[in-house]
Amino acid sequence: MKKLLGVIMVVAFAMMATMAMGYPKICIDPGHGGTDPGAVGYVTEKTINLDASLKLKAWLNLDTSDAGGGYAWDVIMTRSTDATVSLEGRVNYANSNGASRFFCIHSNSATPAAYGSETFCYTSGSSYSFDLRNKTQSELISHGGLYNRGNKTADFYVLKYTSMPSILTEMGFVSNSGDAASLGNATWRNEVAKGFLHALQTHYGYTSYTPVSNVTIIVDNGTSGYSASANWWNGTSTAGYYGSNYQARATEGVSDPATWTANIPSAGSWKVYAWWTAGSNRPTSAPYMVSHSGGSTTVNVNQQANGGAWNLLGTFSLNAGSNQVKLSCWTTAGYYVIADAIKWYK
Which of 58, 168, 213, 282 could form a disulfide with 303 if both were Cys (CB 3.0 to 4.6 A apart)? Predict the structure, then answer.
């Protein structure tokens, strides 16, 4: 009897300790919804926000089931359907349900020239808000691979009036064709949602999670890692470019390449993609020269077709460190070769 009583007391104590400790309650807030579509561009914001939010909830639920780190999460959502919810309603829901963290998911919109990902916390927020913001932005860039617009502060209503540490993340711009190609891709949204899970895990000190297995690096013309001579000029006259513009050059019997350079974090097999704008005045054999561990391979592509999308140049064995892709103008005369963006994916 004493032994049984002791077991009961141990179990009761464990239950009380668990109740006292509690589980992190995460309030996921998919921006906009219902009669408020949010930004409308190449894709519609409210739809993208909701899907990414549901995918984050699924990752948190999977993590609880020991398929991931085995951590217990208590997940609530301000909306799980295409419903209209006011800003006040979102804040009140998070506050009244005692959420530990508020995770607001949005997509951005501006001119077609604006692109990239950014994450905000309240200007006067706690150190926990700043930490969650920094970790979320880091994982968003690592998993999503869009241009890093950095960590920001703002006095957004949902950040200012929530009573717990809160962040608002802008995954990308629906008004930019390059960002929208990612935002509109369900696989990309799922990968970003996994990044949000990792941000929450590291924010809470859960370190034994599976590291990011998919890495995307994008170098666009006009950004760090891209270089070309003055013979290449900026263009926007043909739609479907990645980022704010593309570069063009008349074909000629000289190399004069545009060059994209990426710092590859780990050796292995990487897929390399190119993005261009298509047109009848483009060459049918634009020569991309891809550097890899075995030297360099030239891939000739038809830039008269398949514009405004990622086109696979091939899968290559790359060493860690600096790797380059070059695009030469040395091809059939009378055309304009297009240098836009290059993506490395592992």
Answer: 282
Same domain, 288 and 180: no
Q: Mean pLDDT throughout 39-47?
A: 95
The region that residue 174 occupies, defined by phi over 0 for left and psi between -120 and 50 for alpha, beta otherwise, is alpha
The answer to whether residues 43 and 187 belong to one domain is: yes
Do 182 and 293 belong to one domain?
A: no
In a domain, 281, yes or no: yes
What are 121-161's pLDDT values in tens digits? Answer: 999 999 999 999 999 999 999 999 899 999 999 999 999 99
- Name the token pair of 86: 């006011």
Q: Based on the residue annotation, tell me whether 170 is a catalytic residue of this protein.
A: yes
Alpha helices in 168-285 (DSSP H): 177-183, 186-203
- Which member of 45, 139, 170, 191 is catalytic? 170
Domain count, the chain: 2
Q: Are the C-beta atoms of residues 345 and 270 closer than 8 Å to each other?
A: yes
Helix (H, G, I), strand (E, B) or coil at 274: strand
Nearest to 90 by CA among 109, 104, 107, 71: 104
Q: What is the CATH number of the domain that holds 124?
A: 3.40.630.40
Q: Are residues 41 and 190 in the same domain?
A: yes
| pLDDT (0 to 100) of residue 7 | 35
Top pLDDT among 311 and 212 is at 311
Dmax over Cα atoms in the chain, in whole Å? 96
What tens digit of pLDDT does each residue of 256-293 get? Answer: 999 999 998 888 899 999 999 999 999 999 999 999 99
